[in-house]
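hiii, so i know i said id send this last week but things got crazy w the move. better late than never?? heres the sequnce for the chain we talked about at the cafe, plus the structure i predicted for it. fair warning i was half asleep when i ran it
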Amino acid sequence: MSSQVVTRFAPSPTGFLHIGGARTALFNWLYARGRGGKFLLRIEDTDRERSTPEATAAILQGLDWLGLDHDGEVISQFENAARHVEVAQQLLAEGKAYKCFATQDEIQAFRDAARAEGKSTLYRSPWRDADPATHPNAPYVVRIKAPQGGETVIRDQVQGDVTIRNDQLDDMVLLRSDGTPVYMLAVVVDDHDMGVTHVIRGDDHLNNAARQMMIYDAMGWDVPVWAHIPLIHGPDGKKLSKRHGALGVDEYQKMGYPAAGMRNYLARLGWSHGDDEFFTDAQAKEWFDLGGIGKSPARFDFKKLENLSGQHIAASDDAALLHELQAFLAATDQPALSDDKIVVLRKAMYCLKTGAKTFPQLIEKAEFALADRPIEPDAKAAKNLDDVSRSILMELTPHLQNASWSRNDLEGIANQFAESRDMKFGKFAAPLRAALAGRTATPSVFDMMLVLGREETIARLTDAAG
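okay and structure toks below
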């Protein structure tokens, strides 16, 4: 087996990128990237009825937003069908597989009789050891010869050793009667041909591993390292479904979570590194291992996601954050920020980043910087602009004309002004907020003044006092 780690993500393109699929992709990406390996992408599009180009595009878009880059071209399973058939034919030629002419009715009759007698309904084909000379000229499927005695042990990095008695395994179909390969065969051939060393996937595939190992063994191929990860449950402990909220990764982008926060949260969903909750991509790549994955299902928790997202927004580089903010606006069909607004936002970023857990919250905080004069206060803020407050603003404005426009100077002027009127600064902070932002929840009034600058600040105060 190659010494380089090769992982893969192999979704079926039947819809959006599910949150569970996104976590599987992330685990594969982290494992490969942390070891200088390769992370490959294969689209399992053999189900022609349900596979659509739109779904493939949605999956690629979801991975792109999450920042999970893959190596090489995207591989289509359907396009490899001829290779899958070739392997089945090789097994047939080597006597490791056989042609089975049993009809659906015969198989059903066998199962019904076995059920009535309380016996195993696992189908045993009478054609397994039949003389080819007795083969009829009729449709057939190709079945692999399953081992008939002993046990198959799946050595799993998450679940431990899982033992399955071989008499529980049927002679699995490899090629259908129309000559098309089944999914189980396609997966094994593709993984082998792509050089996949580690198969990290949902534990709903655990039983498939024993059946897929029959093909690896029959072909004399190295079996990859298995790691079957538990599924994600909702907060109530039931399998994650629509009633728990958003299932598609695209919806989380539209809700305004930053990709770094989403990566951090998904990595922590079912995997842990000591007590570490918040970590960077570099740390995740360095720390991620299969031993840290828990055996029981993880529960999705929106509060944790919000908390981590807030920490990632606060820790983000300003330019990167603005870039992602523009992408959020595009994803939610909102107008892009103009160059002028970007300049102001870049100046304001230091006082916007803390406390905002999502991009909508960041935009809400940035309203003072994005709004144009005249500022229209909302109903709550308007209450803070009564006649008394307006006259206070009118009196304060001349004091700001010659300020040096540093935080110290502005705070000094405000406090002096409050003292001279025998009142607390807090008394006129609310009217200042209303005048500068038209909102009651904003960054500090001094931060807003510094970002807006002298001219704009005085113009807004004058408007409000008028």
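btw The longest helix spans residues 445-465. thought thatd interest u
miss u guys!!
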